Every structure is written in C-alpha cells, then in structure tokens.
Write the structure tokens for this entry.
Amino acid sequence: MLLTANPKSIEIQAKLFRGFSDPSRLSILDALRDGEVTVNEIVKATGLSQPNVSNHLGCLRDCGLVVSKQQGRFVYYELSDKRVGQLLTLADELLADVAKGVYECTRYNAKESQNG
C-alpha cells in the first residue's frame, strides 16, 4: 500500500535540512560535536570570521539545533540534542559510500545557480 507523504511534514523536514545545507553552519555543527565551546573556539576550528560564526550560531540557535549558556563572561554553545551529532556521523558514513556520486552531481549546483 502506497502512503501519501504529509506535505507539512515534508516542508518542516526540508527546513531542518536547510540548517545543515550551508557549509558555514555545517562546519559550526561539526565543531560542536565534541561538546560545548565558545565562539572563539569555533572561529579557530572553522576558520570563519567571528561575526560570521555569531550570525550562523544565532540561526542555529533559533532553529533549535544549538543551545547556549552563559558562564561568567563567556557563552558556551553545544548541540541541542545528541541526535544532531548522530545525524552528522550518519552523513559521514553515507558519504563514505556515495561520495563520488555526490561530488559529480551537477543537478544540485545547477539548481543553486538558478535560485541564487
């Protein structure tokens, strides 16, 4: 029996994956895999500028993928849920098997060019 996808659920899933689709946000999430860190530590780990990191952290926090807590004069960031890290690990494992196809795929790049 064929089940019909719930369009609202599909839209929310697509929105979730947009959080992972930006290379800067993805590198920040990757930097948070091992636990809580400060913005300066994320800047060092990613090579991104401090304003860029802060902007993307705000996005990730607003979307529920990252949480923050103040300790003294520092703000520490961490993944909001261990499943975010598990999803990143699963993506690594999947890429180990399909990286060639993803790398050579021209359809994603063509679509990005049309939209941007």
